[in-house]
Amino acid sequence: MTEQEARHWAEATRAACKEAAQKAFEEASMVGLCHEGAIEAALSAIEMVDVNEVKAEP
Three-state SS for 53? Predict the structure, then answer.
């Protein structure tokens, strides 16, 4: 993997984590979890991101 490919993969991974966290936080907030609970849900969502499924496009 070239340095440029690694950078694209890292950026795609970061974006996937951010998207997962935002979605989980919003869903947890909508079902009534407190702020701390929603944050825990967001962190858990980040842990569940399958980095093998991340596709990096240049």
Answer: helix
- pTM, full prediction: 0.86
pLDDT along the chain (58 residues), means of 10: 91 96 98 97 97 82
The DSSP string of 4-49 is HHHHHHHHHHHHHHHHHHHHHHHHHHHTT--HHHHHHHHHHHHHT-
Residues 6+ apart with CB under 8 A from 46: 17, 20, 21
